[in-house]
Amino acid sequence: MTFVALVDPLCKPSPFFSHHHWYSSLLTSSSSTTTSFIHIYNTLIHGFSASLTPYQAKHINSSHGVLSLFPDSIFHLHTTRSPSFLGLNNLKLKLLNSSGSNVIIGFMDTGIWPEHPSFADDGLEPIPAHWRGKCETGFGFNHSNCNKKLIGARFFSGGYRAFFGHLDHPASEFRSPRDHDGHGTHVSSIAAGAPVTGSSFYGFAGGLAQGMAPNARIAVYKVCWVSGCLLSDICAAFEKAILDGVNIISISLGSSRLPFHLDLLSIVSLRAFSGGIFVASSAGNEGPSWASITNAPPWITTVGAGTIDRDFPAKLLLGNGISITGISITLTRESKLTRGFHRLYFGGEISSSKFSFSRQLVKGNIVLCLTTGHMPRMLLGASLLSLGAVAMVICHGSIDPNGMISEPHVIPTITVGILEAKLIEDYILSSDRPVANISSQGTVEKYAKPAPVVASFSSGGPNSAVPGILKPDVIAPSVNILGAWTDAIGPSSVALDNRRPQFNIMSGTSMACPHVSGVAAIIKSVHPDWGPSEIKSALMTTSNTHKLYYYRNVSLSSSSLILDESTGKAANPFDFGAGHIHPERALDPGLVFDLGYQDYIDFLCQLNYTKNEIHIISGKHANCSNIGKGQLNYPAIVIAAEKVGHKGVNFYRRLKNVNEAGSRKYKAKVVGLAGFYKIVVIPKKLEFSKIDEKLSFKIAIRKEKGVAKRTSLWVGALIWHEIGGKHRVRCPIVIFSRQG
Fold it and tell me: Which GO terms describe its biological process (predicted)?
């Protein structure tokens, strides 16, 4: 079994002339056989990874200077119109100046397809002077594949090969930074893809495709292979990324929900934060389950899933005259399927990959499938195609109850919601000869529907690791997102898919994460002196909590809150965090909640982590006896109702003025919670006299007397309004009952 050993570098015994020599002695003293290292860690963390026997692991774990031994573990990926939906096309040109090309985003994913036009370097300035990385050669990849856009590419497979014994498919997987899967190519283009005109997925979502930050540079760290992404490889990639000089790390994969001292991804991301690196990660696709969020540390910006206003409407006309509306990106208007009626067959409920269809029953028919959970839907479509079905109508169940996700199936497919699927099922079961005609209406590119809506699959809070920290932090576009695609595999990723489009349409919080990474790159380019906490605060305090409606092609903020797809009701901060990102406002937030590395050390002390555990997490010794009652200066307040009571609780926060005008006055306003909790802000006004000035305030929360419990969740916000100005700094307040 493979392990990662975390050591205290200061504990190296004096006889050893190097840490490598010391690590070698730990291996040789614990075994009579030769054991080689997989990775040596020298910067963010110190230690090594290796394949160890149970005896070796026990011996090394008890050795002097070894802080902890982590079993290697497998992580999995959380698997256009979005720039204009976010308002980026309307930004003033001065905000998108050439300094944006000095920001480097590091992607830890499945690699990249370098020849794709999304990664062309036309018009870019020379590679930033602070860049120290390189392009590694390997199968199907060499130095010439990099340019002024794709400035670095590395691959990490040591942990994977040690864990599984080999690469599953060495030829097709490319033992190099080249992308065999498509996911890495897709997310890289979402964040920083160059403009590509005339892009589409077989005519759907056509137009100009570009990333959030088209001038930003891309550095690729391939850590994911066919069977997953190994933690030891991810740690090695983090080390290289920091040494190479990235400014932002985008990681669309899931972590554990372990305490921070047992979670290596939490540990390396905190070390990255200490180096000024903004880390964005996906929230996970395990919604709508309660407390399903992954990537919980407050030093990571965790991104949930929202929809955009584009649609791909399709129709299913039943033989009884009822018309069913769904969506499709695989049924074209010119398809022969639209010219007549075809028999309908009910394929039943499907919850696993064990399909048992009869060729006689499905051949030549349109098959209705009701899927549950995260079963392999692409394989389901491929199976039906191989048996002679002409089309599939699919319902995704609770993970997509309204039928909003359209997937690139190898068989013509219409996605419908639960209610629509029930109508079709009832018709099939009640008719002697059920038939239907299917048709596509193409793409409704803009203003097709109110958006955003929180996608049902998006993992939500509360944060099981630290209930007092709001997660997700924000949501971003993640449903039916157009992005670049690899030429190594078809868009459905099944073996019989021979299509090779330049672009593909995908959904998942994996797609939300690079939207935030790209916007963070824009913010960093405009404010190069800002650290990760300032960027995160700007994203959170300026976000939207309401849907957008449109009148005569003008976007108008609605009084209607963002909805939760899974319930059809108003979403709450455990669904969308502080809200849906608003890039233009985030560039000029007025005030920010600033946080430093020491603030997080103090935070760990307040969570009652031991000195040794904090040493493991931070790499430094902490004296928690010197820590007062200060609180983490997070841009959100979350508290269990049982902790409030009538005596109440006080929160303390600090704001930093980042308004270039300097002198500014703000007035506090509390919204929501009235009649249930009394919120008092002291002082009620803040007056800043210069830029970078910091002012503190207190929020006192008391339960109103005589109010009976009527719910398990209370939501409000503290908003600092700039007096005589445009800035509005919003801090969510969430009070929840642990008793449900």
Answer: proteolysis; response to symbiotic bacterium
Looking at the structure, tell me whether residues 182 and 299 fall in a common domain: yes
Tell me how many degrees the CA angle 512-207-551 measures, rounded to the nearest 5. 75
Among residues 183, 527, 582, 727, the one annotated as catalytic is 183
Q: Is 90 exceeded by the pLDDT of residue 197?
A: yes
The 3-state secondary structure of 363-402 reads CCCEEEEEECCCCCHHHHHHHHHHCCCCEEEEECHHHCCC
User: Beta strands of 570-636 (E only): which ranges?
Assistant: 591-592
pLDDT at residue 331 is higher than 50: yes
Of residues 31 and 154, the one with the higher pLDDT is 154
In this structure, the answer to whether residues 159 and 250 fall within a common structural domain is yes
Residue 620 falls inside a structural domain: no
Which residue in the list 30, 493, 510, 525 is annotated as catalytic? 510
| Active-site residue flag, 575 | no
Mean pLDDT across the stretch 276-291?
91
Residue 109 annotated to the active site: yes
**What amino acid occupies position 637?**
I
Residue 374 placed within a domain: yes
Same-domain status, 341 and 405: yes
Q: What is the pLDDT of residue 552?
A: 43
SS3 609: coil
302 with 387, same domain: the answer is no
CA 367 to chain centre: 33
Residue 81 has pLDDT above 50, yes or no: no
Provide the number of structural domains found in the chain. Answer: 4
**Global pTM value:** 0.93
